[in-house]
């Protein structure tokens, strides 16, 4: 399935507007850190508030998913984009208030996050649901989304840095002001292009139950991936700081996103006869092999090259998780997709915290020892998922993708 066919499946404006719409998600964490440190002078407070914001994003994602299966994702997307813009304006205004108010405002920004990435994936699930080429088209769509996510995580922090440097009067507030503009000019409009769920006959019965074992497994897989992100973030920052070049941390972490974006684009050309469960296990193994290289970065191997290679293993693993999640409960795809996506920032917060402790206790090299351990856990999960329930039908990826 080519990307040309994917482009024909939705509105032409969906791709450029959709990319701009996801930039606030990539810009807000760093923008929040800069603003709170500027307002309080405390990195500890800024870091704690940013971590709470990440947890609020995860909690909000679960609520958004449940709402998306019960109401129009178009209306929901617009309401959330506007609410998040208002919350960001409130955070900017709260810089003149006390710390508890600032903290609460930062959490509210996370709770109202419009969940553009998960809802766009729900859009693609709705687009492809009735198409005969559904299996290959959804794979292509998820491949594109992974590449777009990684590109946004490269561009977002760079935009934050440029705005903070260029807008001299209020440098700390510039990135979040730009987020407000993007939310209203891109996130709200792209929500109007979301494809609604197929019409279902009215029913008084309860919604289909969620496959708890399969959903828990996918959440665990995504949380592990989030923890790897968090550990690498702290690891490259500690390495760059120890080398007296802290500004290099952003470029080093961008290499992770670059490698992942390249692999995400290439994922669409994997033969459809390779079943999702097979892909899941192979890419979990690939993730472990790639992460084992990280501790050698900066000593025996250039860290930038090692991080780039590690990034190549990330997108295929994540795309497969999303594809398996999409199959979990076809009538409740918004709930399952947002719950699994919510596990990512929760894992990131945990990975950042643990990696930070390792830096303090063992030095700047220690955080990069964590990703191989996490990747090993991901491989164990991938190899044992079949044995976690007697009901194999509740697990995604058992069938071939054809």
TrEMBL record:
Show the stretches that span the lipid bilayer. Answer: 12-36, 42-64, 76-96, 174-194, 215-239, 251-270, 282-298, 304-325, 337-359, 365-385
The taxonomy runs: Bacteria, Bacillati, Actinomycetota, Actinomycetes, Micromonosporales
Q: What is this protein called?
A: Major facilitator superfamily (MFS) transporter
Q: Which UniProt keywords apply?
A: Membrane, Transmembrane, Transmembrane helix
Protein transport recorded as keyword? no
Superkingdom assignment: Bacteria
């Amino acid at each position: 399935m080519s990307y040309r066919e994917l482009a024909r499946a939705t509105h032409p404006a969906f791709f450029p507007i959709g990319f701009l719409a996801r930039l606030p998600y990539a810009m807000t964490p760093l923008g929040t850190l800069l603003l709170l440190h500027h307002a309080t002078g405390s990195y500890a407070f800024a870091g704690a508030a940013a971590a709470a914001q990440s947890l609020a994003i995860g909690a909000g994602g679960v609520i958004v998913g449940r709402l998306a299966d019960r109401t129009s994702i178009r209306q929901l997307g617009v309401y959330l984009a506007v609410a998040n813009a208002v919350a960001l304006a409130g955070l900017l205004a709260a810089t003149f208030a006390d710390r508890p108010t600032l903290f609460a405002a930062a959490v509210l920004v996370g709770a109202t996050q419009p969940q553009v990435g998960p809802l766009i994936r729900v859009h693609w699930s709705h687009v492809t649901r009735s198409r005969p080429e559904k299996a290959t088209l959804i794979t292509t769509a998820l491949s594109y989304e992974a590449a777009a996510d990684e590109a946004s995580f490269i561009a977002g922090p760079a935009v934050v840095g440029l705005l903070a440097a260029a807008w001299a009067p209020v440098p700390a507030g510039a990135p979040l002001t730009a987020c407000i503009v993007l939310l209203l000019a891109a996130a709200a409009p792209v929500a109007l292009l979301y494809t609604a769920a197929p019409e279902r006959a009215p029913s008084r019965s309860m919604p289909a139950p969620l496959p708890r074992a399969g959903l828990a497994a996918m959440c665990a897989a995504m949380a592990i991936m989030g923890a790897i992100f968090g550990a690498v973030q702290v690891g490259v920052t500690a390495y760059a700081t120890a080398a007296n070049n802290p500004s290099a941390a952003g470029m080093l972490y961008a290499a992770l996103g670059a490698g992942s974006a390249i692999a995400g684009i290439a994922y669409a050309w994997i033969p459809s006869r390779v079943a999702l469960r097979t892909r899941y296990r192979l890419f979990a193994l690939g993730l472990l092999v790639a992460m084992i290289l990280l501790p050698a970065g900066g000593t025996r191997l250039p860290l930038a090259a090692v991080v780039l290679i590690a990034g190549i293993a990330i997108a295929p693993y994540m795309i497969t998780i999303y594809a398996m999640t999409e199959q979990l409960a076809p009538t409740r795809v918004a709930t399952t997709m947002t719950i699994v996506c919510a596990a990512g920032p929760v894992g990131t917060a945990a990975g950042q915290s643990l990696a930070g402790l390792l830096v303090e206790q063992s030095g700047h090299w220690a955080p990069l020892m964590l990703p191989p351990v996490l990747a090993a856990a991901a491989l164990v999960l991938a190899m044992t998922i079949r044995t976690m329930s007697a009901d194999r039908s509740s697990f995604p990826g058992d069938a071939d993708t054809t």
